[in-house]
Design a protein that fits this description.
280 residues, 16 helices
Length: 280
């Protein structure tokens, strides 16, 4: 998409200054486009969001080896300029820049994929799936508004602690790269605070706590009332009992598909971060 502007020098300088301020506020991740490690971190965080909002669709893509970098990165690094006509992209930008939200681009990407769920779930071949993902576009301005409103709703309902993590990566916090390596790569759960899990419960969400900490971690940090005990070491010490516990949890989710599990102490967060959980 090319725009030709005939502006005087003073107006041009003002326009460039505004564009720079806009980019700093709304598109800081684009400044890191050449940093592959950071861009991979954003891709992985988007993947975690897909698992949070629609685990079946996320697993459908994962099982076929389709990473968000294949289809989301062109959207997030160009702010969807190739996803529609000049009129539809301009409408999206009007909505986006009015919000002045650094993270909204990620939720627009998620909303676009969720909007195409029916077509994506019907495709089982990898090449066909990639073709359909890359073909996701804005049909018209009304479609832009629907996607944008859905993205804003997804943003509003995302756990605050996860949004803080996403923000640190997008704005290249000094500790972001280390955090990406330790907590993000390959994860299928959103890492959130226990407080956020309780807020989800208060909103009416079905959140079930599963305590995955070791006995030593529980001894140093205390117990979690009403949590289902599933210590991580059980997978090695008593695999049959561990499998039976997993079957019980799977049965619960089959009876209540909207149920989300809060895995407390998963991935070794217990003693270092006793107030955290992986939500899926």
């Amino acid at each position: 998409m090319e725009l030709q502007l005939n502006l005087g020098e003073g107006v041009w300088m003002d326009a460039m200054s505004c564009a720079g301020a806009m980019a700093t506020t709304c598109l800081p991740h684009c400044a890191n486009e050449g940093d592959e490690e950071v861009m991979q971190g954003i891709d992985e965080l988007l993947r975690m969001l897909f698992y949070y909002y629609d685990p079946k669709l996320a697993l459908h893509l994962d099982q076929r080896g389709i990473a968000p970098s294949i289809y989301c990165r062109p959207w997030t690094t160009t702010l969807f300029t190739e996803s529609g006509s000049l009129a539809t992209v301009s409408k999206l930008w009007d909505c986006y820049f009015t919000e002045r939200d650094t993270l909204l681009f990620a939720f627009i990407a998620v909303a676009m994929v969720l909007d195409a769920k029916e077509q994506l779930m019907a495709a089982n071949e990898k090449d066909l799936l990639i073709e359909r993902l890359k073909g996701i576009n804005f049909f018209d301005e009304d479609h832009v508004c629907r996607i944008f409103n859905r993205a804003r709703a997804l943003h509003d309902h995302a756990p605050l602690s996860f949004k803080k993590q996403l923000y640190s990566v997008v704005t290249l916090d000094p500790n972001a790269k280390k955090w990406i390596k330790e907590n993000v790569t390959g994860a299928v759960c959103v890492h959130v605070s226990i407080g956020d899990c309780l807020k989800e419960q208060a909103k009416g969400k079905h959140v079930f706590f599963v305590d995955c900490r070791t006995e030593e971690e529980i001894g140093s940090c205390g117990t979690l009332p009403l949590a289902f005990p599933l210590p991580a070491q059980q997978v090695l010490e008593n695999p049959k009992e561990f499998e039976e516990s997993l079957k019980s949890l799977r049965a619960m989710q089959e009876d209540c598909p909207e149920l989300q599990f809060a895995l407390c102490g998963a991935r070794g967060h217990g003693p270092r971060d006793p107030g955290s959980a992986d939500l899926n």
